[in-house]
Amino acid sequence: PPKLPTITPAPIGFTPMCKEVEPCQTMTLLNELYSRYDALLDEYGVYKVETIGDCYFVAGGLMREDEDGMTAVCDRSSKEDPLHAERVLAFAKAMLVAARQVVMPTNGQPVEIRVGLHTGPVVSGVVGTRMPRFCLFGDTVNTASRMESTGVPGAIHASAATFRRLPRTEQAKWKPTGGIQVKGKGLMQTYLWMPSAAESN
Questions:
Q1: Would you write out the chain's pLDDT as a tens digit for each of its 201 residues?
Q2: Which residues does the UniProt record annotate as the domain Guanylate cyclase (predicted)?
């Protein structure tokens, strides 16, 4: 299976907000957020896999262009895109900025998100016969989700597997967390990227 970084961002305070506002306001917020994210996909060359509630799940290095110029899923014989981690990271940074352009309906404050990145093998396919959809499976997906849930608001939290694929000039901007306990995995070495004041706008 191809190795690729996956990204799972989620808005901070989303669950408590859902208890305070009408469902249509929740849908409006997510639509505004997701529409902004969708507009960035082609620019950064990443693939939107799915949305699950407040989680927007994308992957890099998943798609390739076949001999007919059509988009196809990478397989075992596909060459790994050497820039896929950088593309996903650039998209993640753009997401942080895009999210802050949307306000929470409860307090009027800009939306903050946590972003989790992890790189590893996945298996893809369409499952089911009713409303079939393209899905990714594997521990990589779960670990990316763990990176998000153990991250910091307004920041990007990455596993060592993704961090190692970034250029040294980019690595210098990250801080090691000293390791975090991840359910089902134990202690994992991870890294945190926090935007500067200029990068937040």
A1: 445 556 666 777 888 888 898 999 999 999 999 999 999 999 998 989 888 888 899 988 877 777 777 676 676 666 777 788 899 999 999 999 999 999 999 888 999 999 999 998 888 888 888 988 888 888 999 999 999 999 999 999 999 999 999 999 999 999 999 999 988 889 999 999 998 866 666
A2: 12-148
Token pair 């699950």 in the structure block, residue:
52
Rounded to 5, what percent of the chain is helix, strand, coil?
30, 30, 40
Query: Does residue 59 contact residue 7 with C-beta atoms inside 8 Å?
Result: yes
* Global pTM exceeds 0.90: no
- In the chain, the amino acid numbered 21 is V
Tokens 């369409």 correspond to 126
